[in-house]
Amino acid sequence: MRRGKRALVSRLLLGLAVLALAFRMGFLLYFGDFYRAAEQAFPVPGLDSDFVPQGIDSFGDGFLVSGYLSRSGRARLYHVDALGGAAPLRLLQEDGDPLVCHAGGVAAEGAFVYLVGGSRCYVFSAGEVKDWNREEVRALGSFSTRNRASFCCTWEGGLLVGEYAAGERYYTPQSHHLTTPAGDENTALAMVFPLDETAPLGVRETPAAAVSLPERIQGLCFTGEGRAVLSASGALGVSRLYLYDQEAVGRLTGASFSLPEGDSVPLYWFDSGARLDTLYLPPQAEETTFRGGRLYVLFESASFRFQYGKLVGGDSVYRLELPEWKDAPAE
Predict the structure, then answer these.
(1) Most exposed of 22, 106, 113, 163 (fewest Cβ within 10 Å)?
(2) Phi, psi angles (nearest 5°) of residue 22
(3) pTM of whole model > 0.90?
(4) Which residues are CB-contacts of 313 (< 8 A; sequence separation ≥ 6)?
(5) Helix, coil or strand: residue 127
(6) 124 pairs with which residues across the strands?
(7) Distance of CA 238 to the CA centre of its chain
(8) Measuring CA to CA, which residue among 308, 306, 312, 304 is closest to residue 47?
């Protein structure tokens, strides 16, 4: 009987190994264009724990990677050095309590590090985050972002905080559902807060502009070469990188958006009229950042919640060069 059970277990394990191999080969073949164009930059930190990566930004000679712990929901930040070594930082609120939020985006600017989640932006000292001897950092303060606060980046002297929208599950207010000049139906909104080194948190807490976004956006970055990149994905299905003409996005059309407190601010558009190209990536692409002429892409597929990414390279941050400009926006 024992011999029969051992034989059955062996056959089951062999079958699982064959299935895993078939999945890996099929996955790598299907996304072959991406894997041929991209290279592994450094390992995603924290995957030996229940860390779920969400945000990435360039920071000094290295990077910052933000996310949350799936068991407790606590926010976590990793400082990654130029060689890929990583140091974890526990994040605390101003009162010293653990910070519990999605930590969907992170952006570093000057003396501050901005982390967003739970409809708020939390601000930390960049000097404290850089200190490799620290195990935790306390927020200097926080403010309301007036949206879901799913990702962030800097843009033309401002801190842009965007939200993720996807159907009824990730619903956004009806006031954020807008028809763009190109006729697209956008369902998400970003707020732009002016950076101000004289302000206590390095940023003014009242938005100076709003930006209309498509659904399923996980991250946004600007290349410094006239392009903007939106990262779009969900739990299942192909991820997309939408490449936009930054000048076209920044061109005002006379539209405005009314803030909850009643003031109106200029409204900018990410729509098909400014889109140049679409690149297709493996599932669960999160935030991106641009550095040294290349785009860095973070995935969450190898995290404790999903695991399968460990079979197909999702446990690495990838870098790739963006394709040449197209002569006209894609249809």
Answers:
(1) 22
(2) -65, -40
(3) yes
(4) 35, 40
(5) helix
(6) 113
(7) 16
(8) 304
DSSP H helical segments within the chain, as ranges? 2-30, 32-37, 126-130, 246-249
In one-letter notation, the amino acid at residue 182 is: A
Q: What pLDDT is attached to residue 85?
A: 93
φ, ψ for residue 293, nearest 5 deg: 80, 5
Chain centroid, CA 52 distance in Å: 12
Which tokens hold the place of 64? 């910052």
Strand 158-162 vs strand 178-179: parallel, antiparallel, or unpaired? Answer: unpaired
Helix, strand, or coil (residue 135): coil
The neighbouring-strand residues paired with 222 are 228
What DSSP string describes 266-282?
EEEE--TTTEEEEEEE-
- Name the residue with tokens 């920071």: 59
DSSP sequence for 285-307: EEEEEEETTEEEEEE-TTSTTT-
**259: number of Cβ within 10 Å:** 15
Would the CA dihedral through 299, 80, 242, 186 be positive or negative? positive
At 60-70, the pLDDT tens digits run 999 999 999 99
Q: Looking at this protein, which amino acid is placed at residue 137?
A: V
| Structure tokens that stand for 67 in this block | 């996310």
Phi, psi of 51 (to 5 degrees): -70, 135
Q: In whole angstroms, how far apart are CA 14 and each of 8, 9, 36, 274?
A: 10, 9, 30, 51
pLDDT tens for residues 247-256?
Answer: 999 998 999 9
